[in-house]
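Hi C.,

You asked whether I'd gotten around to modeling the 100-residue construct. I have! Everything is below, sequence then structure, no commentary in between.
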Amino acid sequence: RFDSQSPDALHVSHVFGDDPMGFAVPKYNASAPAGMDIRAGDYITSIHGVAVSSKSMGEALFKKTKVRLRVQRPECYFVELNRGDRSLGLSLKYSKATSS
């Protein structure tokens, strides 16, 4: 399942497990090198080396039989900053539906 929150990436919101229908991603994940699997929370940023819009990426993913994806995984880290009386200087969006 994909979430197109970003215009230049597809957010992977769920990866279906083993299933009699034989989904391609779980099959790939079963033999993927360590850390190169596709997980919920990942972002697909290009197909065949071409960065494209979420809409066209989705169309290519579901129409082609073989695809080469660039997958970007969010990293989590902690920061401590001294804000004082200043604004953070960030524009933030909240979404309960995404996992990263």
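If it helps when you're writing up: The chain has one domain: 2-72.

Thanks,
B.
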